[in-house]
Amino acid sequence: MVLVKPETIAEYTEKGWWGQQTLWDVFVQQVSARGDAEAVVDACNRSDFAHGAPRRLSWRELAQETDRFCLLLLRHGLGRDDIVVVHLPNGVEQYLVYLACARLGVVVTPVPVQYREHELAHILSLTAAKAAITFTQIGRAGHAHLAADMYRQLSAAHPSMRTVLAWGSDLPAGVAGIESTWPDTLTTEHQAQLVQAEQDAAVTANDVFSICWTSGTEAAPKGVPRSHNEWLIVPPSIIEAGQLEPGARLLNPFPLVNMSGLSSALVTWLVLGGTVVQHHPFSLPVFLQQLREERIDYTVAAPAILNMLLQEERLLDGIDFQRLKRIGSGSAPLSEWMVRGFAERHGVQIVNYFGSNEGAALSGSDIDIPDPALRAQYFPRAGVPGFNWRVSTARKIQTRLVDLDSGADITRTGQPGELRFKGPTVFSGYFNAPDMSTRAFDEQGFYRTGDLFEIAGDRRQYYRYVGRSKDLVMRGGMNISSEEIEGLLAACPGVQEVAVVGVPDRILGEKLCACVVSAPGQTVSLGDLVEFLRSQQRVAAYKLPEYVLRVDALPRNPVGKILKRELREQARTLAPEAA
Fold this sequence. Notes:
Blueprint: H1 6-14, H2 23-34, E1 38-41, E2 56-58, H3 59-75, E3 83-87, H4 92-104, E4 107-110, H5 117-127, E5 131-135, H6 147-154, E6 163-167, E7 176-177, H7 188-201, E8 208-214, E9 222-227, H8 228-232, H9 235-242, E10 249-252, H10 259-272, E11 275-278, H11 284-293, E12 298-300, H12 303-311, E13 326-330, H13 336-346, E14 349-355, E15 361-364, H14 372-377, E16 378-380, E17 398-402, E18 417-422, H15 434-440, E19 447-456, E20 462-468, E21 472-475, E22 478-481, H16 482-489, E23 495-505, E24 509-518, H17 526-537, E25 547-550, H18 564-572
Parallel strand pairs: 1-11, 3-4, 3-5, 5-6, 6-7, 10-11, 10-12, 12-13, 13-14, 24-25
Antiparallel strand pairs: 1-2, 8-9, 14-15, 16-20, 17-18, 18-19, 19-20, 21-22, 23-24
Helix pairs in contact: 2-4, 3-4, 3-7, 9-10
């Protein structure tokens, strides 16, 4: 499945930005070079959210299990250009699934473990996925999500999905157990079958490897397809900014479902031939334990977490900062105090990241912005003639800052505009959504991020993040479309009108607040809204509102547009920090 235009492939290949290697090719090379070295490690608290004991696999062991999973996919008739939904918590299983699919040309569409019927029905309809790969249960005993059974029920309304594969016990009827059906040993005949299947698939570097999901101003999740080349162009920005060496040990606290997780914990891991230590769900005590015990060279953490750690430095005792010299962060503004504090007290440089599933990304590291005060608030003005940055990705992309009213390019400091991207890191369009794809790019072919920046610096060499033009709430690194939740809550009994805004949160960045005008004679509670979304609409748990603001009327401007700025100011008072 090749979705990028031939002329684009030719241009980026000629420039040496894209090549011929697939993710599977890189894996085979690393297995040959690093066979017995540790490749992937489960979270030490695995039993809290998944069946089975934590495991550690070498590159060779991972290759053997990947071979077995390939045979299982073939047995179920899955091959090139078939799409499979991958619904798994962070664990070693994700790696053999992704690698097996990369080998056979099966397109993976990973989804957050929080997704439920509401989100999945849209994804299954849009992709016509032929299989789902999951666990029988995800979560703590007594509160586990019966993932495999959910897909079995969904398959009745989505006949394209003929196979549900699951790890775990107590398999529902119609669900195929993975460990009970794949071969115990690999025979010569099996190896010959795999070689033939790989030849038949004939996967190229421009074939789509994944379709990840992002939420925007449109109500439904949008699929972002990325080819092997579109993924392999990303690691230099992480390796160079993080000053990572081959074989580096990486701690991954991000879900392995989108750009944040896959770029570092899958593709960069592959290129480095390193070790990934998985983490799920985020738990500060477990995170710190892993930093101490697993000899970590690089990790990522939300700004609020890094602020907390620097405020309570006893929590950092025992961490080897001779190894862990750089930590990535982003998704919210960084504190100058935090960036400077880690550098001065521990010799740790914080890398400031901005990015999206669509491939629009900036990285501010000490090799390009040595001053922590500047790095906390600015990014290199990458992709603009006249500036030379050491992170090589900055020389492969183009960016422009555009005034949203006039459409003119902004070249002076202090004027907010939309940042737009073009180049080999940027996706080619949303999956099976031509209208949205057309709207996503401007007349010059630049991707419209919907994010507002301004030019800054004494030489106009920086971008400074200002805010979002799209109506999103970002909770714990997950984008939530206000429009989506508003559309669902409009059907809730007792709701006359509703608007959804974000309330600042010290840990998660933002939490959802539903601003509700109740129907005459009724009063709608937060519990009413949550129960309606959970039981009637079956939305992911992270999208549930955590505050309710009752108002007599939604504030509007003269043309009737809801003034969410006013609602945000009112909703801020509901947060505990504002009490």
